[in-house]
Specification:
Layout lengths: L2 E5 L2 H10 L8 E5 L15 H11 L3 E4 L3 H4 L2 H4 L6 E3 L3 H8 L1 H10 L7 E2 L4 H10 L3 E6 L8 E5 L1 H15 L10 E5 L4 E9 L4 E3 L4 E2 L2 E3 L3 E4 L4 E4 L6 H21 L6 E10 L2 E8 L7 H7 L4 H10 L13 E9 L15 H4 L4 E4 L2 E3 L5 E3 L3 E9 L2 H12 L7 E2 L11
Parallel strand pairs: 1-2, 1-3, 3-4
Antiparallel strand pairs: 5-8, 6-7, 6-8, 9-10, 9-15, 11-14, 12-13, 14-17, 15-16, 17-21, 17-22, 18-21, 19-20
Helix pairs in contact: 1-10, 5-6
This protein binds adenosine monophosphate and glycine.
Length: about 425
């Protein structure tokens, strides 16, 4: 079988690497891919006509969608009846990520544990709520904002500024039932990612994992797309797992069935574990990045079989098996990320690093003469494993020290919050 992966980040390189264990490497295509992936096709991941023509020409039968945008734009519906399977939810189901208001209403309606939220049809109402809550709240733009559009506030001034910034950036919608932002209760706790494969009725979960979203050590500095991840989580108890299944995962599956939405794909639960138990912050309708770069190496089972099981109704019989030990991913970024950074700097030392770690490319490109250059803010993912979390961390960082590019920056504390 020939498979195309849509996307260009570390997540997509990890997917291509894992699929190359299911089918010959030459049968795995990446659209558009990066400097680390082979068989790249330079097509925009939302140009569905061009993707279809390419898949027909190459005889590709399965498309695995990495990022959310093609899903929210309806790639799954577009390919329906074409004979080419798309692994990812329908346009309607993708609204669980594409519209935060839709997601919150779904959670409340189906009894999924989550924080309170408020919707508005006038700005005056929003300003009054900001005063009432003393500015301790979270303001979110309803639609996709590529990691921006979320403001965690601690004072009335901050919250008012956030609203103004939202209006400058996106302009409040005019004729809708609600303005296109929401205010949420600010939840306190620690975050974890629970990610699994679903056929819309059943789910098979991968290891629980944790992203490190801030730029600097000890979770300081600006939010980024993710500076590292690790799995499994040593503190993840059977009790916490049971709570998450009962209060979040199972009600979500019931809701998907009740809504009769078609969902064969990955579902991601972004959870805050609070003193009152787990609360869902958000759904993503795709794999997380950088979580995927540790989840797929830790997965022993065949990825293609899991994907196909979501289409043919056999998912309950495909309980994933995992490799022993721990996996951590350190993101090597270009200094200046997530703001302004240089591109086109040569990268050296990857093959040395690969002696003791996996290296998944993100913002890289290969020139015609085969030179590898930086081409993005997050450049590489270095994944170490070990029988203990400590060993996994040692292995990953030993490999990081062998890689060189100008202004390379990485956090030095990935996974360390969970060391005994
Ligand atoms: P999102 O884009 O919805 O994932 O939000 C980005 C980040 O904002 C999350 O990973 C959290 O760290 C934080 N966040 C979002 N919603 C809340 C909330 N209701 N309470 C506290 N923190 C939040
Ligand atoms: N790691 C968070 C995300 O992929 O949205």
């Amino acid at each position: 079988m020939k498979i195309a992966i849509l996307g260009s980040g570390g997540r997509e390189h990890a997917l291509a690497w894992k699929f190359a264990q299911s089918v010959p490497e030459k049968n795995v295509y990446v659209i558009p891919g990066n400097g680390g992936t082979g068989n790249n096709a330079p097509i925009d991941s939302t140009d569905f006509d061009a993707i279809k023509a390419f898949c027909r020409y190459e005889g590709i039968e399965l498309i695995f969608v990495g990022p959310e945008l093609p899903l929210v734009k309806g790639i799954t519906d577009y390919f329906e009846g074409s004979g080419i399977k798309v692994f990812g939810p329908s346009k309607r189901a993708a609204r669980l990520e594409g519209s935060k208001i839709t997601a919150k209403k779904f959670m409340k309606h189906y009894g999924v544990s989550t924080g309170n939220f408020w919707l508005f049809n006038s700005l005056a109402q929003a300003y009054k709520l900001i005063e009432d809550l003393n500015g301790n709240l979270v303001i979110k733009y309803d639609g996709l904002a590529g990691g921006k559009g979320v403001y965690v506030c601690s004072s009335v001034e901050e919250a008012k500024e956030a609203l103004e910034e939202l209006n400058t950036e996106y302009r409040y919608s005019e004729s809708e039932e609600f303005l296109d932002f929401l205010i949420e209760e600010k939840l306190i706790g620690y975050e974890i990612s629970i990610i699994g494969f679903t056929d819309g009725r059943h789910i098979q979960l991968l290891h629980p994992s944790q992203d490190h979203k801030q730029l600097l050590n000890n979770d300081k500095g600006p939010n980024t797309g993710g500076m590292g991840a690790y799995c499994p989580l040593p503190f993840y108890t059977p009790h916490l797992h049971a709570q998450i299944m009962e209060q979040v995962v199972n009600p979500t599956l019931k809701g998907l069935q009740a809504e009769k939405v078609s969902y064969q794909g990955v579902i991601y639960f972004g959870l805050m574990i609070t003193n009152e138990g787990p609360k869902l912050l958000e759904y993503n309708v795709r794999f997380g990045d950088p979580e995927t770069e540790v989840l797929l190496p830790s997965l022993q089972s065949d990825l293609l079989q899991l994907v196909l099981a979501c289409f043919d109704g056999t998912l309950p019989a495909h309980t994933p098996q995992f490799n022993p030990g721990f996996y951590i991913d350190v993101v090597l970024a270009a200094k200046g990320y997530p703001k302004v950074y240089e591109k086109n700097n040569p990268i050296q030392g990857i093959s040395d690093a690969q002696d003791s770690a996996l290296v998944f490319h993100a913002g890289t490109k290969k020139t015609d003469d085969g030179t590898l250059l930086t081409n993005g803010g997050r450049v590489l993912n270095v994944v170490g494993n070990g029988s203990t979390l400590h060993q996994a961390i040692e292995n990953a960082y030993a490999a990081c020290s062998k890689i060189y590019f100008k202004d390379c920056y990485y956090r030095t504390d990935i996974g360390k919050r969970s060391l005994p």
